[in-house]
Amino acid sequence: MRAYAGDQEAWQASEFEELALSFEEPAESFRDLFLGFPGEPYEAREARLAAAHDVLAELDELGQHDEIARVNADYAAALRDVAPLWEHPSKRARLPWTKGAA
User: Closest Cα partner for 77 from 57, 62, 48?
Assistant: First the structure.
């Protein structure tokens, strides 16, 4: 008997589970949830960070009893701690003599 998920044939149970649950796609969006992207609008960034905070809290709670959730929580915490350069342009101190320039 052959097992298919979409148009992909699965040979082993683990392959079928991966294809059926699309493990690769959520991992990409999971990373994006914590890192964002350059030029992201302020409102979108705030909504994304609020969702990331909720996901991290849920993973921390689940990680108390589930090893995989604990690993995911550690990964999410590491992603949260990454500070891309494009997120902090407003924190640069402006020099007093450059106020009128631009």
Answer: 57
